[in-house]
C-alpha cells in the first residue's frame, strides 16, 4: 500500500489510524490506495495495539423495506471510513429484545461505541449499559440520558401539509405507520394536525389510514381507500415508500398524479428523484444527521469535548412534480 501511494509505511499508518497530521494531498493518495487494494483493518490487532477495536456498531430496525435505513447505513459506512473506523451493522426488526441484545450483548465487546436507532427500548434497559461505553441514539426515541441526534418529524409534516394546502388540497388522506408503536408516526401525525388546525381545518384529520412503512402497504392502503369510497384530493404518505406505493395504486385505479390526486411523502429517499412523477417530499437531513452523530460518538470514544445531549435538525421541503400540476 505504501509503495502504491508513494509514501512511507509510517504515513500509511497515520492516515489509516488517524494518528498524525498528514497533508490533504498525501491523505488522498493513501485513501485511494486503500480503496484500490481493498484494505480492511485487522480489528483484533488494532485493539491489542491501542486498546480500541477501531469499529463501531450501527443498529437499525431494517435495511430493505423503506429505503431510509439502507441509505443511512451507506452514509455511516462511508463517513466512518474517512476516520479509519469500520462499521458492524445489525438489524433488529424493531423488536425490543433484539435491540437490548445489540446494546448489551456480547457483540458489543467488538466495538468502541454504537449508533442506535431504537423503536422499543425503554429507560429500564439503559442501566445495563456499562459505564464508558458510548452510545448515540438516532431518531425519535429517547432512552434515558443517552445522546441523541434527530430530525424534526413534526416540523416536516407541518411543512408538507402546508404545501399541500397551498397548492389546492382540500381533503388530505394520510397513509402512515401505527402511532401506537412508532414515535415518528406520532410526531408526523401531530405536525400534520397542527398545520390543519392553523389553517382552520381540524375536521380533515379524520382521513388517516394506519399501515406498515413500505411500498406494498401504500399501494394496499390507497386501494382500500378507493374501494371504501373515501373522498380525497391529496395523499400524504408519512414516508416516501408509502407515498410511492400510493402513486402506483392510484395509477392502477386510473387516477393520475398530480392531475387527479396530489401526493407527497417525507424522507427524500434517493428513489423519489427518479419516479414518474418525481415525488414531492421533505429532506430528512440524513448526511447532516450522520456527520453530527458520528462526530459526537467519536468524541465520546476519544474523550474529546462535545456538548452532546439532544441535537435536532430542521427539515426542508423539496417540491417536485407529484404536487405541481401543469397550468
TrEMBL record:
Residues 1-50 form the HTH lacI-type domain. Keywords: DNA-binding, Transcription, Transcription regulation. This is LacI family transcriptional regulator. The keyword Transcription applies. GO terms for molecular function: DNA-binding transcription factor activity; transcription cis-regulatory region binding. It holds the Pfam family LacI. The keyword Transcription applies. CDD domains: HTH_LacI, PBP1_LacI_sugar_binding-like. Gene3D superfamilies: 3.40.50.2300, lambda repressor-like DNA-binding domains (1.10.260.40).
Amino acid at each position: 500500500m505504501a509503495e502504491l501511494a508513494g509514501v512511507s509505511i509510517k504515513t500509511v499508518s497515520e492516515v489509516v489510524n488517524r494518528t498524525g497530521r498528514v497533508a490533504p494531498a498525501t491523505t488522498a493518495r493513501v485513501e485511494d490506495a486503500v480503496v484500490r487494494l481493498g484494505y480492511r483493518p485487522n480489528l483484533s490487532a488494532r485493539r491489542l495495539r491501542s486498546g480500541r477495536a477501531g469499529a463501531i456498531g450501527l443498529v437499525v430496525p431494517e435495511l430493505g423495506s423503506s429505503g431510509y435505513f439502507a441509505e443511512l447505513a451507506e452514509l455511516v459506512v462511508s463517513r466512518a471510513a474517512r476516520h479509519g473506523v469500520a462499521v458492524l451493522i445489525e438489524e433488529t426488526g424493531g423488536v425490543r429484545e433484539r435491540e437490548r441484545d445489540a446494546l448489551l450483548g456480547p457483540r458489543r465487546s467488538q466495538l468502541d461505541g454504537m449508533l442506535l436507532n431504537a423503536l422499543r427500548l425503554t429507560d429500564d434497559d439503559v442501566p445495563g449499559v456499562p459505564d464508558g461505553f458510548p452510545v448515540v441514539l438516532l431518531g425519535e426515541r429517547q432512552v434515558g440520558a443517552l445522546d441523541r441526534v434527530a430530525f424534526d418529524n413534526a416540523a416536516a409534516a407541518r411543512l408538507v401539509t402546508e404545501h399541500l394546502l397551498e397548492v389546492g388540497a382540500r381533503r388530505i388522506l394520510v397513509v402512515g405507520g401505527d402511532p401506537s408503536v412508532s414515535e415518528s408516526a406520532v410526531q408526523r401525525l401531530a405536525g400534520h394536525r397542527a398545520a390543519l388546525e392553523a389553517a382552520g381545518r381540524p375536521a380533515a384529520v379524520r382521513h388517516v389510514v394506519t399501515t406498515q412503512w413500505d411500498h406494498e402497504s401504500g399501494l394496499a392502503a390507497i386501494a382500500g381507500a378507493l374501494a371504501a369510497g373515501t373522498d380525497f384530493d391529496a395523499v400524504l404518505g408519512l414516508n416516501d415508500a408509502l407515498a410511492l406505493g400510493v402513486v402506483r395504486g392510484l395509477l392502477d385505479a386510473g387516477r393520475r398524479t398530480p392531475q387527479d390526486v396530489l401526493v407527497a411523502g417525507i424522507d427524500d429517499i434517493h428513489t423519489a428523484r427518479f419516479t414518474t412523477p418525481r415525488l414531492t417530499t421533505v429532506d430528512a437531513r440524513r448526511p447532516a444527521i450522520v456527520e453530527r452523530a458520528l462526530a459526537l460518538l467519536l468524541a465520546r470514544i476519544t474523550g474529546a469535548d462535545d456538548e452532546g445531549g439532544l441535537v435536532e435538525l430542521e427539515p426542508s421541503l423539496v417540491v417536485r412534480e407529484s404536487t405541481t400540476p401543469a397550468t
